[in-house]
Amino acid sequence: MTMDDNDDGLAMPSRMPKPTEIFSTVHTEFGHCANLDYRYVSKHVEDAPVLPHVDQAAPYYILLSTYISYLILIVLGHIRDAFGKRFYPESYKHLLPSENGAPLNSDFDSFYTRRLKTRMDECFSQPVTGVAGRTILLLDRYSPDYNHTQLLTGGQTRALNISSYNYLGFAQSSGGCADAVETAIREHGVSSCGSRLEGGTMDLHLLAESLVARFVGQEDALISSMGFATNSTYIPALVGKGCLVISDELNHASIRFGTRLSGAHVRMFKHNNMRSLEKLLREVISQGQPKTHRPWKKILVIVEGLFSMEGTLVDLPRLVQLKKRYKFSIWLDEAHSIGALGPHGRGVCDYFGIPPKSIDLLMGTFTKSFGAAGGYIAGDKTLIDRLRIRGHSGPYAESMAPPVLTQIVASMASIMSVRDSLDVDVYDYPGPAPKRSLPTWLALPRALADGSEGRSRLRRLAFNSRYLHQGLIKLGFITYGHPASPIVPLLLFNPGGSGFNLIVLLGSRSQTGKMCIFHNLMKEREIPIIVVVVAYPATPLVTSRVRFCVSAAHTKEDIDTILRACDEVGDILDLKHGIPRGERWRIEDVCARAVELANTT
């Protein structure tokens, strides 16, 4: 068993492993947990309805105090700008015209950044060192000038990490995948300039693309060195003028950017609302193109499998039914769901038991569940070949480096498992990977090669996700998202302080500054917890939130720690406005009945 030299609560497990329990991981990076009760299979219950996204409203006094805070912020901010430009022009010269020309940005455009975000910058972009595993090592800092600059103190703080997209816990500096990456560096180096085939592609690229296609259950796949660019550069290669793109209103910025570049006509439907989508489909198909009313060349519906801000799962069964009726194409963005959902970790198709080939294009990234970088698109071979030629990432982007490709191959193969006797040309989705489809120099440890560790990671992630989600609800918090989602948003409503906390002076229970206070209270606990807080413009104005990102690396005790911290901080900040089924539970009951909560349907 490998351990850190430290003996604090984060470095050492709460219960020392038995002699029969052998762990090859460092506890700070991937928590030791041999209790098989803390496992769950991520799978949709057959014939059960898909849970819709429900916006739960806060009490009126919460909303009122939030709007008043914004009003105070805006009024005082503009007053300060007016006086500052007159009496302190040096501090505002970047907003004033000069002999060299106009200002780079206006005071109106930068108002939100200067007057709100800057006040909360202590919550964002925190410097870290090491891997973003179960724990993360923060570099301590302070600001002498109200967050305009940040200075390092030289100290470090190890915190429980509930803020990273490390869904399966592959962000490790040791273990089978890390050893495979070291081997790849010895074989190919760190750049993508060696062992190339024609067209700037290595044999490792071809192996990785073949493995990705097998993993997601499609004929072919291409890989890109950047996840954002996978959407923004390949959507324009698929649709253009005379085509229609129908997009979920909460789709990621990369999808919005790609559709704008394409020149296609764009319409949006209400978030994950299939009735809204069907109504829109009837309208656009009957009306055709604007002005000419000609039929659309293509109709492409773009949705995400798991929405990163809401934690919502797409209603894929209903979407596939609509596709059969209205004959459109589907682009499914699985950046967050691939590897994190389904009994075999193959994403939302696997979760709902839907054949992947019923989806025209599957897009995903390697930056979350696989601990690597880049993205992929998988689909029909003819279509993928077209995208290789027409997509801008193909000829213009830098190809992936061998260590990154190896991390993808090793982590993906460990989820699939590897078998010696399988035929490379025959593949039964969602089966194991043939050993001959992997690089000859790649040797995975037995626990990875036989898929046992991959299955354990998938089931630990499913348990942790459901336990945290249901536990927060039972404690009385308002949360968004599907119980199976590893993204668990907890609603705060009010983002930050206004500079003149009128609400506190009026005797309210501190509705302002909740983002910063929540972040700091969690970080300053006996066992520090690092969280992600999100506000406008990433969310609507009054639905600021904490976004917990659960990992298979977390133990049940880690989730207990997070729930206990939320329970205490929620009482301090008046955050418990949810209405759970039945009465609210005490935190002791939540922790004691974790298995029952995780198995709640």
Automatic annotation (TrEMBL):
GO BP terms? ceramide biosynthetic process; sphingosine biosynthetic process
Record-listed E.C. numbers = 2.3.1.50
Q: What class of enzyme is it?
A: transferase
Q: Which Pfam families match?
A: Aminotran_1_2
Q: Which residues form a coiled coil?
A: none
Matches recorded under InterPro entries:
Aminotrans_II_pyridoxalP_BS, Aminotransferase_I/II_large, AON_synthase_class-II, PyrdxlP-dep_Trfase, PyrdxlP-dep_Trfase_major, PyrdxlP-dep_Trfase_small
Q: Where are the transmembrane segments?
A: 60-79
Q: Which cofactor does it need?
A: pyridoxal 5'-phosphate
Q: Which GO terms describe its molecular function?
A: pyridoxal phosphate binding; serine C-palmitoyltransferase activity
Protein name, entry field? serine C-palmitoyltransferase
Q: Which organism is it from?
A: Mycena chlorophos
